Every structure is written in structure tokens, then in C-alpha cells.
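Page 42, continued from yesterday. The earlier attempt failed because a stray header line got pasted into the input along with the sequence. Redoing it now with the clean sequence only.
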Amino acid sequence: MRTWMRGLLRNLTSARRSSSPSIYSFSSTSSPSSTPVAAAPVADVAAEDLVLDDTTDPAAVAAKATVPSVLQPRVVIYDGVCHLCHNGVKWVIKADKNRKIKFCCLQSKAAEPYMRLCGVDREDVLRRFLFIEGHGLYHQGSTAALKVLSYLPLPYSALRTLLIVPVPLRDAVYDYVAKRRYDWFGKENDCLVLQEKELLERFIDREEMLDRSQKDL
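This time it went through. C-alpha cells are written below.
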């Protein structure tokens, strides 16, 4: 009799365990009367927008707060005090009817995580502007300019065919102009976009630029 009772209790315990729901997640603070809640779906985020970081290094973890977990694709980082560069940005904004390209002044703090991830510094971008096309994909100089044009509507996007021209030749022309841009076109003491705030809606450093303009008043 005792053996039969022990077997019955063992069967009841096994049945109760096997009927426990496995597709729900519960809060650790839930009471016995809490109802099970289905696990929330993962947000739909474009893979090109993600910056993956699985490091466990203490120094890297400590610095994590200074690097956003999500960086935007198709961002141009350029010399914001250069008249030639600023006029080029204005032209792209006007031509970019689908608003695919975003901008950031090199002189803003918002540019720093992008440069850090691309392995370039401020001097590198002063020589050749930076275009972050997507996660792990960036360009500088003449290639960056042609990649930006490729996102514009026709006929401008057709200029991407110039990518077949050897890079040394293209960059030689780019560097010749870039080295003389201040002498030929001039520069300002602060970012030129501050003088045309209506353009800031296309800038990822918009809030920083607006704060800077308020402090200058």
C-alpha cells in the first residue's frame, strides 16, 4: 500500500512539472496570483544601424557610456568652418529629395564616436571628409564624395561611375583642392551652419549646435 501511494505521488508531481508553461516569462516579484505574460518581441532595428559590443574588458565597459549603442548610417562628417565644405553640404541637402544623407560638423562632440569607430582622428577628417555609409563601412576623400552622390536622384547618382577612375588619381585632385580651400574660399571661426539654422534638421548634432548658438547670444 505504501509503495502504491509513493508511486501515485511521484506521478502527480511529474505531471504538475510537465504542465508548467515554458513559453511565458514571469516577473521575479510576481505573486502566486500573477498571470503569465508572453515575452516581448525584439524591436525591429536595421542591422546597419547597430553597433555591436560584446566586450567584457573593464576599461571598455567603463567607457561605454561615451559611445552610443546605435549610430546612424549615411552620415557625412565635414569641416564645419570651411566655406567650400559648407556650400557642398547645402548643395547635397537641396539635391537629396529623399533625405537619405545626414550631416555632422567635425567640430562637434557628436562626431567623436563615429571617428573613433572608423579609426580616424580630427586631422584625418580635416584632410579628407568622412562618410559613414553603414556599420563597418566608411569612406574618405573622393570616394566618399562619389558614394554620397550615389544616394542622390538622377542625374547626380550617375556620377558614381567615376569610381572606376583609380583612387590615387581621384584623390590627387581632391587633395590639391582641399589643401587650398581656406585660401581660395575662406573659413569662419565657428560652424557655418549656425548662420543657417534651417539646415539643422538634417544634422545629427542639431541639439549641440543649437545649444552652442544660445550660449553665444
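Notes: Strands lie at 24-25, 37-38, 75-78, 102-105, 130-134, 137-140.
Reminder to self: strip header lines before submitting.
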